Amino acid sequence: MNKSLLFIAAASMCIVFPACHSGAQKNDAAPSENTAPAAEAPAAAAPSESAPEAEAPKAEEAPAAEAAQNAPNDEKAAVPSAETEVLVAYFSYSGNTRYVAEYIQKKTNADIFEIKAKVPYPAEYDACVAQAKQELEGNAFPEIESTTDVGKYKTIYIGFPNWWGSLPRPVMTFLKPLDLSDKSIRPFLTHGSGGVQQTEADLKAAVKAAEFKPILSIRDKDVKSEETQKAIDAWIAD
Question: For residues 130, 136, 139 and 144, what is the CA-based torsion angle, rounded to 10 degrees?
Answer without folding.
Answer: 80
